[in-house]
Amino acid sequence: MVNASDRKYNEEDLLLLSGIQHIAFCPRQWALIHIEQQWVENVKTIEGQHLHERVDDPFLKDSGCELVVWRSVNLISYQLGLTGRADVVEFKRTKSGIVLPGKKGMWIPYPVEYKRGKPKSDERDEVQLCAQAMCMEEMFGTEITEGALFYGEIRRRTIVPFSAELRKKVFGYANEMHCLFRLGITPVPVYKSHCKSCSLVEICLPKQMNRLKSASNYLKKELL
Fold first, then answer.
1. Which candidate, 138, 117, 115, 139, places its Cα nearest to that of 127?
2. How far apart are CA 53 and CA 13, in angstroms?
3. What is the rounded CA–CA span in Å between residue 20 and residue 174?
4. What is the reported pLDDT for 134?
5. For 52, 82, 132, 145, which has the most beta carbons within 10 A of its beta carbon?
6. Residue 148 pLDDT
7. CA torsion angle for 32, 36, 41, 47 (degrees, to 10)?
8. Which pLDDT belongs to residue 63?
9. Which among 64, 59, 67, 81 has a CA at the least distance from the CA of 9?
10. Per-residue pLDDT at 90
11. Which residues of the chain are modeled with pLDDT < 70?
12. Chain centre distance of CA 205
């Protein structure tokens, strides 16, 4: 746990943890959503919401002798400056870990995040899950070595080890979010193949903006 005097961020500085997957996908997308407050739902975002609704029950707790399951767990980290919720946190009985209210023995948290579709080619889902784990480490004063991503399309879990490299990426993305938010900067668009699946493509207009930049650069060269 982090003492108040050692906190990097305060309550008023906290940003949404869910945004870390947006900035990992595209910094401009993150800024359009979290700075300019623009959002467009498409089929993928709606399906994703429905998948989350099936586990998003803050009053439901499944318990057993070796496994305790908490749903919709509030998270916060003053080192990352992030706050949000975890879909599911499984607490597994171990020889060393943390104490749970009303439970005997020691337990270790194991975050599980639910996603539509299948595993992605980039690490945006892994980064989000790792950020959740880092929040829990700070909250519970323990170490979490791995978690899992459950994908609705393939109906199975993908295990995610929380390596030093992945943790470094979480810190990097969190710092970038705070920097952009503090300065109020929306990065310029850079068209890539993944733009086609972005729910904000009609607002971002990456192809059109790139053409305007190209035309502007051409005119500048001709007028010099």
1. 115
2. 28
3. 7
4. 98
5. 132
6. 95
7. 70
8. 56
9. 81
10. 93
11. 1-2, 4-5, 39-64, 206-224
12. 24
Could you tell me if 48 and 55 are in contact, meaning their C-beta atoms sit under 8 angstroms apart?
A: no
Residues across the chain: 224
Q: Please state whether the predicted TM-score (pTM) of the whole model is above 0.85.
A: no
CATH number attached to the domain at 4-187: 3.90.320
Q: What pLDDT score was predicted for residue 146?
A: 97
